From TrEMBL:
Keywords: Isomerase, tRNA processing. GO terms for biological process: tRNA pseudouridine synthesis. It catalyses: uridine(13) in tRNA = pseudouridine(13) in tRNA. SUPFAM superfamilies: Pseudouridine synthase. The lineage of its organism: Bacteria, Pseudomonadati, Pseudomonadota, Gammaproteobacteria, Methylococcales. Residues 155-301 form the TRUD domain. Belongs to the pseudouridine synthase TruD family. This is tRNA pseudouridine synthase D. The active site is at residue 79.
Length: 347
């Protein structure tokens, strides 16, 4: 993962298995967090897609509706090699809805269409619900279930997954080339990918250091705390109330998504963040020059509705079925890396 060793919180994986042998093995459903109003200029589409790229689906929706690509939006990208339920919005002011069922194909189905008064913006999801099947499982059953219970109880480090960094971590190299002037691009989408990779890399480094120091899951003096369903944060003294809220997962210690502005942390937390970030000073200064605004991300993820079932022993060997919810921006494979090493059938 970007060439750095991301330490485990619980001592390492307990076994291995194959993930995504078929797209149906990785099912994800967006949790919108609000109900469309039923009226307005925007049509919200609940789409089930299998083996299809999010951007490609957006293009197909735009062509079908007779609008520009910019008139179609979505809250977040979803894995192509998966079965996903995802929301799209289409700007259709003063126009009647087309027959959305005519858009259906073997890889795409429109499950619901309803009007809303605002477009769907990136990052507005409450979270995602996952149903995963891991095949050819090789693990000590008792040890694996113990680790799964530990993740359900105590959470896991909220690392950005390798998808964020591209094959072999090349998006970090692209970001450095963008910052030193050896790469020029007017493609805003690619530019955003490289900037996001740089921020994610710095965050992972800081989180990795806190995992090594075994304080990723508890409050440090000077920490900034985030809320489970919000991008906002606050700083406060480590009062008994704050410590109780951290222990109850009502608030989380956070790390920086680097950009312009001062670190809001103080004392021990600020010293750690500044020292680790300085290891990638080139990326930090590049993000600042590109006017990316400083933000915060929770250091840990606490999977909701966590459940699993062990079975199988047929052609695909022993299998693990696992389901849980995560907040938007968290990675399912990151939550489970504390339990298993995955041999993905698709990159």
């Amino acid at each position: 993962m970007t060439g750095i060793d991301l330490p485990y919180a619980y001592g390492g994986a307990t076994g291995s298995g194959i993930l995504k042998q078929t797209p149906e093995d990785f099912a994800v459903e967006e949790i919108l967090g609000f109900a469309p109003s039923g009226e307005g200029e925007h049509v919200f589409l609940d789409v089930e897609k299998t083996g299809a790229n999010t951007d490609d689906v957006a293009v197909r929706i735009a062509e079908f509706a007779g609008v520009t690509r910019m008139s179609v939006s979505y809250a977040g990208l979803k894995d192509r090699h998966a079965r996903t339920r995802q929301w799209f919005s289409v700007h259709l002011p003063g126009k009647l809805d087309p027959d959305w069922q005519a858009l259906n194909s073997p890889e795409l189905r429109v499950l619901e269409a309803c009007r809303h008064n605002r477009k769907l913006k990136k990052g507005t999801l409450k979270g995602n619900r996952f149903h995963l099947r891991i095949r050819r499982l090789e693990a000590d059953r008792a040890l694996l279930e113990q680790r799964l219970r530990q993740i359900a109880r105590d959470g896991a480090p909220n690392y950005f997954g390798p998808q964020r960094f591209g094959h072999g971590g090349q998006n970090i190299d692209k970001a450095k080339a963008l910052f030193d002037g050896s790469l020029a691009t007017r493609n805003r989408h690619l530019r955003g990918i490289y900037l996001s990779a740089a921020r994610s890399h710095i965050f992972n480094l800081i989180l990795a250091e806190r995992v090594r120091r075994q304080n990723w899951n508890r409050a440090l003096e000077g920490d900034a705390f985030t809320f489970p369903d919000s991008h906002s944060f606050f700083c406060g003294a480590l009062t008994p109330e704050i410590l109780e809220r951290v222990a109850a997962f009502q608030i989380h210690p956070s790390g920086p998504l680097w950009g312009t502005g001062e670190l809001p942390t103080r004392s021990e937390a600020r010293e750690l963040e500044a020292a680790v970030a300085e290891q990638e000073a080139e990326l930090c200064r590049g993000l600042e020059r590109n006017n990316v605004e400083m933000a915060r991300r929770a250091l840990r993820i606490n999977p909701g509705e966590f459940g699993w079932e062990l079975g199988g022993n047929g052609e695909d060997g022993e299998q693990l079925l696992v389901s849980f919810t995560l907040p938007a921006g968290a990675y399912a494979t990151t939550a489970l890396r504390e339990a298993l090493v995955f041999d993905a059938a698709f990159d």
